[in-house]
Design brief:
Rossmann fold; 12% strand; binds ligand Z5A; 5 strands; alpha/beta
């Protein structure tokens, strides 16, 4: 085990906000500063968790129950934490993750309307005390996000939801950020990419200063 545990950074936001694009700016910053890290994503991050991801995103003839969806998200997370996240943090590496449990509160909680208390119970069962140290939330009007995302081709099962679903997801993220301002930094993702990058790096440096 390392002398100092690594930090756990997560990037969040609704569809097409630019997470995949912007996560590279975060890892480039860590590399410039000689910080050892692993990059991962949810759902996914390990062989088994990636298989669960496929099951979650594929369009099936049979509708997936909301409870199945919630439990599958946490099943993938349990695997991801045990096989990837905890060992990396314990070895002193930082973990940069594209989505984590805030996505469950936003999508399954606010989006689907599942009980936030039940999600909290699962969070405690699966994660114990593990929480991200810093979370960057990219915020964007869902209609712009869906337009950006749809340029990439076929929509997956969750992307096929109605606009109203993504408005609730966005509100979920904004509520989480309001409730936990120390951990969550919100970036306006509607600006041109160069500006989003500058804002993100500024927020990242400010957010990390308290861990120095
Ligand atoms: N999910 C869930 O329901 N519950 C959970 O607990 C978890 C997840 C963990 C997969 O996530 C799904 O899982 C997701 C939530 C659900 N819902 N769906 N579907 P994902 O993160 O893999 O998939 P995603 O949300 O669909 O991400 P994405 O579509 O890949 O979007 P993105 O990474 O945020 O966007 P991007 O690919 O970086 O950018 C999209 C396009 O916009 C691209 O062409 C960029 O060049 C462009 N872009 C980016 N930034 C800009 C700016 N600033 N200006 C103009 N254009 C831009």
């Amino acid at each position: 085990m390392a002398d100092k545990r690594g930090l756990f950074l997560t990037l969040e936001g609704a569809e097409g906000v630019g997470k995949s694009t912007n996560i590279g700016f975060i890892t480039a910053h860590l590399e410039e500063n000689g910080i050892e890290y692993i990059l991962s994503r949810e759902p996914g991050g390990t062989l088994i968790a990636e298989e669960i991801r496929e099951l979650l995103l594929a369009v099936h003839d049979e509708p997936m129950s909301e409870l199945s969806e919630l439990l599958l998200v946490f099943a993938a997370r349990a695997q991801h934490i045990e096989a990837q996240i905890e060992p990396a943090l314990a070895a002193g590496k930082w973990v940069v993750c594209d989505r984590f449990t805030d996505a469950t509160f936003a999508y399954q909680g606010y989006g689907r309307g599942l009980s936030l208390e039940k999600i909290e119970q699962l969070q405690t069962m699966v994660q114990g005390t593990l929480r991200p140290d810093l979370t960057i939330i990219l915020d964007l009007d869902p209609s712009v996000g869906m337009e950006r995302a749809s340029n990439r081709g076929e929509l997956d099962r969750i992307e096929q939801e109605q606009q109203s679903f993504f408005h609730r997801v966005r509100q979920g993220y904004l509520d989480i950020a309001k409730a936990e301002p120390e951990r969550c930094l919100v970036i306006d993702a509607s600006k041109p990419l160069e500006q989003v990058k500058l804002d993100l790096l500024k927020a990242l440096k400010q957010g990390l200063a308290k861990f120095a």
